[in-house]
């Protein structure tokens, strides 16, 4: 299989490279800040995940057939656009999604939540290489990964933030479930959800939202993320990494699957008006 692979091939928004025998790097480059859209998720990000899993499974089956105890390792690193050190991702293309009545209702249940579920249960270790600002839906994407490595912000400012409270957007069930299960401290939940706090890298590390900070540019963040991923890549050899995660995060996967409508300030006000 040859690399790099680009998705979609005619106007790439995601590029996958395979720098070592056990590591795949998925680079998001939908503009400078890699906003999430229907096209980006369904025609770039999800097919890229499929391509990585397909290749890893081919290697894993060969290792099993040959009784190769060192074969079948794997890890996936996800990073924002290389060549810039400002954004991991700015999250959803919110204005355009909210301006389209169909997307406003369906974006999370039909598009975003299947992506989260896919990543939560991915069969090899996943590492978010957070090379800049990481906002809203993108923060949850990073939380869906098994590990998080972030720039230390010394050369350029970088924040992690769920900022919906600041512009009057409710949280879909999936965002609440991801935050609740991947971040264990209720005081941190309050800062994330109800205060919309902008966590600096050092604050995110102290709060347990990320695992490591790295001094340097995007390539330094990728290098550390790769190191972290490769240190546990052998855990994929027996094929149970994803199976165990499906049980470990069963409640989270079920929450992402049962979303039926978006949480909305407008809906909340209408229900309060009828009730009061």
Q: Which band does the percent of strand residues land in? A: 15-25%
**Alpha-carbon distance between the two ends:** 62 Å
Helix/sheet category: alpha/beta
User: What percentage of residues falls in helices of 4 or more residues?
Assistant: 40-55%
CATH topology: 2-enoyl-CoA Hydratase, Chain A, domain 1
Radius of gyration: 19 Å
Q: Encode the helix/strand succession as letters.
A: EEEHEEHHEEHEEHHHEHHHH
Q: Report the uncertain regions.
A: none
What's the mean pLDDT score?
Answer: 92
The largest pleated sheet is described as: 7 strands, mixed
How many strand units? Answer: 10
CATH architecture: Alpha-Beta Complex
How many structurally independent domains?
Answer: 1
Sequence of strands across the biggest β-sheet: 1-2-3-4-6-8-10
- Counted by DSSP, the helix tally is 11
CATH class: Alpha Beta
GO molecular function: delta(3)-delta(2)-enoyl-CoA isomerase activity
Protein name: Enoyl-CoA hydratase
Pfam families: ECH_1
Organism: Fibroporia radiculosa
Your description of this structure?
By secondary structure, this protein is α/β, with parallel strands linked by helices. The chain has one domain: 2-enoyl-CoA Hydratase, Chain A, domain 1, CATH 3.90.226.10. Helix content is 46%, strand content 15%. The chain is built from eleven helices and ten strands. Strands 1-2-3-4-6-8-10 form a seven-stranded mixed β-sheet, sandwiched between helices. Strands 5-7-9 form a three-stranded parallel β-sheet, with helices on one face. α4 (137-144) packs across α5 and α5 runs antiparallel to α10. The longest helix has 28 residues, at 38-65. The chain is globular and about 70 Å long. The mean pLDDT is 92. Belongs to the enoyl-CoA hydratase/isomerase family. This is Enoyl-CoA hydratase. One of its GO terms (biological process) is fatty acid beta-oxidation. One of its GO terms (molecular function) is delta(3)-delta(2)-enoyl-CoA isomerase activity. InterPro entries: ClpP/crotonase-like_dom_sf, Enoyl-CoA_hyd/isom_CS, Enoyl-CoA_hydra/iso.
